[in-house]
Amino acid sequence: xxxxxxxxxxVADVPIKELGGxxxxxxxxxxxxxxxxxxxxxxxxxxIPSGFAPGSDVGCMSVFGYDPRKYHTGRAPxxxxxxxxxxxxxxxxxxxxxxxxxxxxxxxxSADHITSEESAQLIKTISDRLGSDEVRYIxxxxxxxxxxxxxxxxxxxxxxxxxxxxxxxxxxxxxxGPGSNVLRRHMEQSTAILKDHPVNRERIKxxxxxxxxxxxxGQGTAVSFPPFQQAYxxxxxxxxxxxIVRGIGTLASMEILKVPGITGYFDTNYEGKADYAxxxxxxxxxxxxxxxxxTDEAGHMGDVRKKIQAxxxxxxxxxxRLLEGLKQRNEPYAIMVVPDHPTSVAIRTHIAEPxxxxxxxxxxxxxxxxxxxxxxxxASATRFxxxxxxxxxxxxxxxxxxx
Length: 403
Prior knowledge:
Blueprint: E1 2-8, H1 24-27, H2 31-39, E2 41-45, H3 56-63, H4 68-71, H5 76-82, E3 91-102, E4 105-108, H6 116-130, E5 135-141, E6 144-150, H7 180-195, H8 198-205, E7 213-220, H9 228-232, E8 236-239, H10 243-251, E9 255-256, H11 270-282, E10 287-292, H12 294-301, H13 304-328, E11 333-337, E12 343-344, E13 349-350, E14 355-361, H14 374-377, E15 383-384, H15 390-395
Parallel strand pairs: 1-10, 1-11, 2-15, 8-9, 8-10
Antiparallel strand pairs: 2-14, 3-4, 3-6, 3-7, 5-6, 11-14, 12-13
Helix pairs in contact: 5-10, 6-7, 11-13, 12-13
């Protein structure tokens, strides 16, 4: 049996007035997702345990089959793992965004989705000016960077995800508590360093938003998982353009497949993701997780049309290609579609509601749901209060949920 999990980040949503009270999933055309729901089983999973912030770190950990209450220490250590960085005792990793603050307001958590090349230049300058043996800046993908700080007290600093405060004044959301004076000082100094940086001057000329500040959040200490093959008996691989997802895969000892042209944005190489996933199954992998970020980014932008387009791209260019390839191989397979959390277009951030899933398996069970969207799947009686248990349910098609 071969297995594929398609993880369209933040694809679930709530009814939107602009869409006549429907969600993007209800409006978008996605024949392949609907086929999986119609020919298979559906249900709901609480991927965000009570007390946890609704982030991809927690939600993806649940989808990968690991209990966040047992393994989660923070977001940044997962991203560090993707870069081969294993934290030492007493070290704390922070996510460090290069973003746009204007007149004291959070305008854009991604600085107009600044390119990795541009953003790396900014982080290098920040590191040269502010970095030390105790505070190390590490460039990542696009606006997503890391800062490693020595000092266990920093694990208790109160930080706010920047995508949660779009259009709000930042004063109330600056770091608080232990170590916050150090973080605030670095953030304040970054504004002067970035103000006249050549990268920003060129971006302004091109009509793009400059990166005006660094922002710390998502901190955590060292983390480790049992290997996926040990936990679930399957050799697994992971495809994602996003460090946090690759980090979870790395910590789970999955093979990380490097697909050319994947970006974590609307221009990502959907077809390449499908082809590399299918090839991995041919070469001995039992399971491949294929993550897509574009659906989440559209939600953070508050752009319902872009979210609909991203859903349709996922369906046609990724899921359709996967299904065609799986059917051609003439061997038993199972495919699951499940997001890590909903991302609300209306408020431009994540919410902690349960997420809808759909599973098709050759010779597997079938329920009465006929479409993949939030309203249709309300008819399903299958529900997992602990989202990490969904993995075991997927790997043994036809078993019953938790009630």
